[in-house]
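To assess whether the prediction recovers the assembly geometry, we first specified each molecular entity separately, as shown.
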Amino acid sequence: GQNIDQPTEMTATEGAIVQINCTYQTSGFNGLFWYQQHAGEAPTFLSYNVLDGLEEKGRFSSFLSRSKGYSYLLLKELQMKDSASYLCAVSDSNYQLIWGAGTKLIIKP
Amino acid sequence: GAVVSQHPSWVICKSGTSVKIECRSLDFQATTMFWYRQFPKQSLMLMATSNEGSKATYEQGVEKDKFLINHASLTLSTLTVTSAHPEDSSFYICSAPRVGTDNNEQFFGPGTRLTVL
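The predicted structure of the complete assembly is given in tokenized form:
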């Protein structure tokens, strides 16, 4: 079957760095997405990885290892507004998104 | 950037009534759109894939006669919740992939919060 695993909840301190991991097992792979979702709102796109390596975009970076079925989202210089759920999603062989359950990130002052 | 809109943003209805939710791609054509449902504190759950000019494809466990999907044009898909009941209360979100983008990115609508009394 298809499976996406990510931690349910993480807590970090304002100004610090946090890494949210995602492991996946899917039928085919056409890229991995990270989305941010604030409570009561639709997800917003953060990053896309289809090749191995690190993609950096401002305070956010995303890493992919296809051989390990593993990705992480790295958030630097954490701000209170970064408190949200972070969703990992894999595009399978049919280009359909398979979603993880999301990681709730709590930022403390 | 690409924008997907949904209407209405929120709706409250009585049990037994039907509710129509619209999803529009504003600056690109979408032959495919996806409809998701999200219950509180849970992840997105794909309900169905809406295909322009043909029947929608429903995920296992989703009643096609209850959740009617019509993708009448390349920019509009509608989801109608028929004979809504309180257990249908949820956050409904549509998304559309923009063909030709390098990353097959899907653009999400802002969502529709449905409350059935």
